[in-house]
Q: What sequence folds into this?
């Protein structure tokens, strides 16, 4: 029995398509400074990303000596600061721009399912020149649940009219892989992203890749 050809690709954003940690770290440190807490290194922030902005701020507060009682105020400060710097140092990873174009030319339908708040996505995609590349772009607050819940993934499949077997989840963290597995779809992982210091292979994705070029070459065999 031949495997079902893949038609729909669902990408995570931060750590998969883009390196946004420098801008996230800048906003986190502006928030910490407001509370007169020690500042965090970029590498520390890299290990806190992946579960949405509220959890990112919570991890930063606890790591730098803050209190959970500060969380709501700290989150609002972070969001305001990040709105001012979200596109300053954020860049696409090597091979991503070319790879996305190759996948589009091959007929794949591209989508984003990220835990980043939706309010930041339009300006960020415009900054990257990607505003016309994706059918659907879902943030962590676009629906009532975010990854590792599979809701975003199943929603995209249903909205576009494809079966789970025709869709693939692509990400860099265990939340991406767990969401894809919970949805029952193939999962492809990238080893260079943000995964709390854990090897992404430990989450048992269908395949894992060291770079975006290798990922694209594999996906092109799935059509």
A:
């Amino acid at each position: 029995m031949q495997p079902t050809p893949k038609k729909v690709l669902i990408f995570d954003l931060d750590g998969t398509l883009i390196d946004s940690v420098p801008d996230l770290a800048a906003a986190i440190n502006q928030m910490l400074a407001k509370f007169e807490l020690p500042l965090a290194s970029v590498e520390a922030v890299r290990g806190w990303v992946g579960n949405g902005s509220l959890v990112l701020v919570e991890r930063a507060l606890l790591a730098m000596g803050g209190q959970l009682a500060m969380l709501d105020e700290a989150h609002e400060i972070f969001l305001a600061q990040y709105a001012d710097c979200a596109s300053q140092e954020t860049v696409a990873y090597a091979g991503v721009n070319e790879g996305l174009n190759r996948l589009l030319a091959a007929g794949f339908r591209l989508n984003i399912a990220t835990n980043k708040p939706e309010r930041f996505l339009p300006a960020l995609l415009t900054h990257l020149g990607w505003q016309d590349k994706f059918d659907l772009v879902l943030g962590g607050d676009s629906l009532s649940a975010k990854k590792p819940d599979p809701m975003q993934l199943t929603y995209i499949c249903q909205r576009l009219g494809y079966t789970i077997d025709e869709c693939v989840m692509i990400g860099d963290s265990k939340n991406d892989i767990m969401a894809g597995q919970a949805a029952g779809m193939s999962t492809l992982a990238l080893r260079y992203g943000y995964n709390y210091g854990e090897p992404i292979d430990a989450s048992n994705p269908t395949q894992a890749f060291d770079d975006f070029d290798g990922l694209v070459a594999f996906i092109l065999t799935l059509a």
In short: The longest helix spans residues 71-85.
